């Protein structure tokens, strides 16, 4: 009966969001309350579960997501992302143009949210296609696959950052493993898969081409790279350096403090405020205006994340985790494959990678004490599953279709298959890492 209630909970969530067009946060809240009632949580305790779910989830996440949004917004507004893209193009030349775009997508995608990165990079894709007389889909897929991977796999993007919090994983190690998984996923789904799309005819709509910032107004290449990737450098440096430092030493304690995601992101925003803001002639008021807009951009994302935290807490407080764990123990499926499969199914049904990842976390998180698996790899397994086969119920599908002016059939052939490859290669990479670290 308990398993049935959980299944009805997931189905109701899917129907409310897709068929009922209910806001995802409201859907999570409504479904969580009724799930609590169905699982026997007393009426007097349901509100406590709701409040604890929101508090525990946002308490350690909101700073990372908000500061990440601020950094990404300034990287975009200052032209740093455009400068990085231009530098990559110059370095690789025409022969390896799609590899240049792939690396650009990876570098730019780390600090930028997916939709921002997508819109920001579209003018570059179209201008390259026009300059070198190449099919725009063939040129665009390598870059967009990289943007997709960073969105699903790498902190500080909302879904992986939230999963790190829920599974009590280490953000530094998740980033290290995530980069290891990301590279083969991007190569297969990007340049290699793009070779099958050379004959796909696409005539992008002119109205969708955004004007570039004049070159003389762009920040320098070194400034752009260091400012944009500072969080990556800091997280990787502190994580790896701690391995060689005595645990109780002052240096170890200092590195742990500086390596905390909240501190890393704060330092990154302070650095970018100077290097991409004040030093580029912006006033402090202008920079703060950019940051204010960034917070507005992620407000709903934070609410959706908190809604997923409510569902997780309800499942935890009801004791359903013990029953689900006993069922899963009889399965021969590896826990990482199970997390990937659940996320993939919800992704195909719901469309949203973020909601798919967070919903799966709500189901898997209470079970982490009963299963022997690296929490960092579970974050990546669910992230890979949340990218599976984007189709007509996903906003990203329509962004790609409309910007490239494709038919639905062409979009499925290109975009949907690209996302599927990212998901499959991603979970394969996760399983390989799991094999070697066990």
TrEMBL record:
| GO molecular function annotations of the record | gluconate transmembrane transporter activity
Topology of this chain in the membrane = Multi-pass membrane protein
Mention any one GO cellular component term assigned to this protein in its UniProt record. Answer: plasma membrane
Asked whether the UniProt record includes Signal among its keywords, one would answer no
According to the record, the signal peptide region is none
Mind telling me which PANTHER family this protein's record contains?
A: GNT FAMILY GLUCONATE TRANSPORTER, HIGH-AFFINITY GLUCONATE TRANSPORTER
Name the NCBIfam families for this protein. gntP
Q: What is this protein called?
A: Gluconate permease
Q: From what organism does this protein derive? A: Adhaeribacter pallidiroseus
Instruction: Kindly list the organism's lineage.
Output: Bacteria, Pseudomonadati, Bacteroidota, Cytophagia, Cytophagales
């Amino acid at each position: 009966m308990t398993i049935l209630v959980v299944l009805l909970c997931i189905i109701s969530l899917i129907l409310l969001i897709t068929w009922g067009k209910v806001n995802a946060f409201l859907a999570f809240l409504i479904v969580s309350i009724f799930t609590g009632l169905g699982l026997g949580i007393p009426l007097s305790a349901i509100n406590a579960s709701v409040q604890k779910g929101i508090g525990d989830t946002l308490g350690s996440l909101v700073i990372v997501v908000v500061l990440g949004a601020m950094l990404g917004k300034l990287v975009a507004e200052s032209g740093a992302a455009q400068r990085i893209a231009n530098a990559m193009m110059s370095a690789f030349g025409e022969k390896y143009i799609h590899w240049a775009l792939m690396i650009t997508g990876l570098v730019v995608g780390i600090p930028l949210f997916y939709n921002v990165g997508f819109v920001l990079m579209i003018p570059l894709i179209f201008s390259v296609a026009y300059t070198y007389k190449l099919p725009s889909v063939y040129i665009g897929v390598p870059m967009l696959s990289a943007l997709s991977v960073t969105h699903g796999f790498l902190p500080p993007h909302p879904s992986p950052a939230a999963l790190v919090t829920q599974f009590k994983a280490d953000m530094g190690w998740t980033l290290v493993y995530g980069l290891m998984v990301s590279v083969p996923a991007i190569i297969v789904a990007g340049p290699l898969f793009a070779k099958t799309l050379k004959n796909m005819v696409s005539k992008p709509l002119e109205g969708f081409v955004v004007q570039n910032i004049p070159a003389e107004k762009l920040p320098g290449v070194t400034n752009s790279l260091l400012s944009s990737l500072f969080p990556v450098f800091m997280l990787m440096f502190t994580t790896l350096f701690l391995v060689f430092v005595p645990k109780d030493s002052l240096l170890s304690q200092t590195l742990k403090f500086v390596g905390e995601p909240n501190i890393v992101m704060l330092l990154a925003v302070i650095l970018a405020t100077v290097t991409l803001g004040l030093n580029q002639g912006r006033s402090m008021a202008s920079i703060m205006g950019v940051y204010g807009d960034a917070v507005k951009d992620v407000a709903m994302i934070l609410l959706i994340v908190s809604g997923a935290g409510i569902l997780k807490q309800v499942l935890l407080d009801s004791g359903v985790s013990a029953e689900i764990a006993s069922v899963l123990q009889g399965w021969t499926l590896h826990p990482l494959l199970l997390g990937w499969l659940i996320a993939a199914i919800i992704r195909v049904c719901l469309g949203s990678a973020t909601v798919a990842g967070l919903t799966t976390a709500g189901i898997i998180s209470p079970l982490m004490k009963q299963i022997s698996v690296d929490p960092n790899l579970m974050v990546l397994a669910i992230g890979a599953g949340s990218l599976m086969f984007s189709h007509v119920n996903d906003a990203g599908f329509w962004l790609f279709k409309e910007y490239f002016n494709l038919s639905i059939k062409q979009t499925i052939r290109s975009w949907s298959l690209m996302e599927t490859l990212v998901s499959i290669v991603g979970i394969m990479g996760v399983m390989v890492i799991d094999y070697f670290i066990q």
